[in-house]
Design a protein that fits this description.
The protein is of the alpha+beta class. It has ten helices and 16 strands.
């Protein structure tokens, strides 16, 4: 039931845009009033005000925290834990601007550990396991071992869960990893290790290059053919520009034999397989009948956020093309699909990495633009 309420509130926020400054102020005031009511043992009224606060701002940390306390008092420990986890995340995201949030985050994390008596033990076990992986990778430096260790670290999210001093000390090799065959899931063996493809030959006609640079791109690679004004057939092409704040937009035509990636802050290692979906930046990958959304995740222990595929939005079969736009302003990232805002987040993500539109295979795209600085 709690998840259904939160899902509906998230959908409402997505349809009506992110919380404005006035909405956030109202949410904070409602949460403060709810805390006062809870201190007077008026828990039902406090609960009602908290949900009203979240209707104004779904990420209101104070309201999430108060709801965690109310549900913990009622003995509904699973719901309480969910609210405390979200509160800790939002307090952590805002503590740079509001230092008082640091102590609130620590209190939320302490309550999470109390609700789960095995949490501390679990973290210790993960730290011990990571120490063994560190020892193995120091001794065996071949690409196969390093890649397998990174697979395990990614699966358990060790770099996010553990503090930097206890986190993995190894990285993926820069050369192609030895292919690893995993047991088939449907009778068909899959090669899921990363494959590093040779760079595609670059063939960009002068008029196309001028138009793309006028649209904000500085680096253009791959094969580009102009179909009409602003419309290009692209094979293994990439557009990049060293911007960190601004917006990117591209219109992806239906069909083609590949995918189109549109990302801001494209500064991470991508790992996409049938098991994991970690992106290189924040944005979309359009492929087939879906648009995969990559949003910030992590940040709980060391405030470092990585790109993780949150969901895949279906694309209409009737639409001949789809418009993708991603905006970023400092830590705020907003996602638009066919002019509808699908998501808005605001975290302390790394302020580095270019904007990129990357076509793998052959696709037709239109009006790829990059704006900002």
């Amino acid at each position: 039931m709690i998840r259904s309420i939160l899902t509906l509130m998230a959908l409402f926020a997505a349809l009506n845009g992110s919380a404005s400054a006035a909405d956030k102020v109202m949410a904070s005031a409602l949460a403060s009033a709810a805390a006062k009511l809870a201190s007077d043992a008026k828990f039902e009224k406090a609960r009602e005000l908290c949900f009203k606060a979240l209707a104004n701002d779904e990420d209101c940390a104070e309201a999430l925290f108060e709801l965690g306390k109310i549900y913990e008092r009622d003995g509904k420990f699973t719901a309480a834990g969910e609210f405390f986890v979200r509160a800790a995340r939002e307090f952590g995201a805002g503590e740079a601007a509001t230092p008082a949030f640091a102590s609130r985050r620590l209190e939320a994390e302490t309550r999470i550990k109390k609700l789960d008596p095995y949490a501390a033990r679990f973290t210790t076990l993960l730290a011990d396991y990571t120490a063994e992986l560190n020892a193995i990778t120091r001794k065996s430096t071949d690409a196969f071992t390093q890649d397998e260790a990174c697979d395990r670290a990614d699966a358990l999210k060790l770099r996010t869960v553990l503090s930097p001093d206890k986190a993995p000390k190894f990285d993926r090799p820069t050369v192609a990893a030895v292919p690893v065959k995993r047991p088939p899931e449907d009778g068909v063996s899959r090669m899921v290790s990363r494959v590093i493809k040779p760079a595609a030959p670059t063939n960009v006609p002068p008029d196309v290059e001028r138009a793309l640079k006028a649209a904000g791109w500085t680096t253009i690679t791959g094969s580009w053919k102009k179909r009409s004004e602003g419309v290009y057939e692209v094979t293994d092409g990439k557009l990049e520009t060293p911007k960190v704040n601004g917006a990117i937009q591209v219109i992806v035509h239906k069909g083609g034999t590949g995918s189109v990636k549109a990302m801001v802050r494209n500064n991470q290692e991508e790992y996409l397989s049938s098991f994991y979906s970690y992106g290189s930046g924040f944005g979309y990958i359009v492929e087939g009948a879906g648009a995969k959304m990559f949003t910030p995740s992590g940040g709980y222990s060391n405030n470092k956020f990585y790109s993780n595929m949150e969901r895949e939005d279906a694309l209409s079969d009737a639409a001949p093309k789809n418009i993708v736009m991603v905006t970023v302003d400092e830590g705020k990232v907003e996602y638009f699909l066919n002019a509808v805002k699908k998501k808005s987040v605001n975290y302390q993500i790394a302020k580095s990495g270019p904007f990129v539109i990357h076509v793998e295979g052959s696709m037709v795209i239109e009006s790829p633009q990059a704006k900002g600085q």
